[in-house]
Structures are given as C-alpha cells and as structure tokens.
Amino acid sequence: MKRALFFIIAGVLAIVSASAQSAPAFYVSPRGGVCDTVYNKVDVSPSYPGGVEEMYYFFHKNLDAKYANELHPNITSKRIMVKLLVSNEGKILDQKVLVKVSPDVDSAVLDVIKKFPPMVPGQMKGRKVCSYYIVALNFLN
C-alpha cells in the first residue's frame, strides 16, 4: 500500500513539474510558415548571410537615403531594435520593433527587413530550428 501511494505521489509530482517547465511556443505566421517550436535560446544563433557587416551594407544600400546617411555601426545616440522570428528554413516569419526611433525610421527599417535574403537559421543540437534574432541599428542625431 505504501509503495503504491509512493508511485502515485511521484507520478503526480512528475506531471506537475513537467507542466511547470515552459515549453517553447507554437507559431503560425500570417505570411505563411509554421514553427512547431520557437526557441529563445539556441546553441547557434540565427545570422544574416555574410555577417553583421553585410547586413549594414544591405541597409545602406536599401534604406531611404535620408536615413541611410544617419546609419552608423558604432554611435548609439539613436538605436532601433527589431526582434525577428527566423524559421528553420531562414525565412523571416515575424518582426517586432522593440526599441523605436521614430515612426518614419521604424517603418523604413521594417521595409528593408522585408527585403532581406533568407537568413542563416539558428541551430539546437545540430538541428536547424525556429528562433529569434535581434537587429540593432544605430543612427546619428
């Protein structure tokens, strides 16, 4: 009897602890695309093909000239931060401005992000997964 009670209590505790752990989210993109699991932390973060320097070059080339001239990699007087959801195929499924500069600059940056080539997806245990990537751009005053 005591042994059966022990196994019942152990089973209940296992179920409670499993449900208390935060499971990664399921996401369906309005742009088409599904992530059955979205990871906040990954072994290898998603990245822009060619690295951060290539991403800045892409912004300089594609951003409206009045904003591109203010774009600077090291000066942080104004910073926009955009959180991207990158699929396991490298497609950007969602974007959200976390730190805003102004409605015009924010909109211009989001328009350029829509033109991004496929990203290099994040990896977890050697497998490509859906995960987040933060784009941080600095602008001069």
Structural notes for this entry:
The chain is of the alpha+beta class. The chain has one domain. The protein has four helices and six strands; from the N terminus they run αββααββαββ. Strands 1, 2, 3, 4, 5 and 6 form a six-stranded mixed sheet that branches. It is elongated. The termini are far apart.
Keywords:
six-stranded mixed β-sheet; alpha+beta; 141 residues; 32% helix; 6 strands
Q: What is the total number of structural domains?
A: 1
Runs in which pLDDT lies below 50 for 5 or more consecutive residues are 2-24
Rg over alpha carbons: 21 Å
Q: Structural class, please?
A: alpha+beta
Order of helices and strands: HEEHHEEHEE
User: Which percent band covers the strand fraction?
Assistant: 25-35%
Determine the fraction of residues in helical runs and give it as a percent range: 25-40%
Tell me the layout of helices and strands.
Layout: H1 2-20, E1 25-28, E2 34-39, H2 52-62, H3 65-68, E3 78-86, E4 92-99, H4 103-113, E5 122-124, E6 127-139
Parallel strand pairs: 2-6
Antiparallel strand pairs: 1-2, 3-4, 3-6, 5-6
In a few lines, what is going on in this structure?
Helices cover 32% and strands 30% of the residues. The protein is of the alpha+beta class.
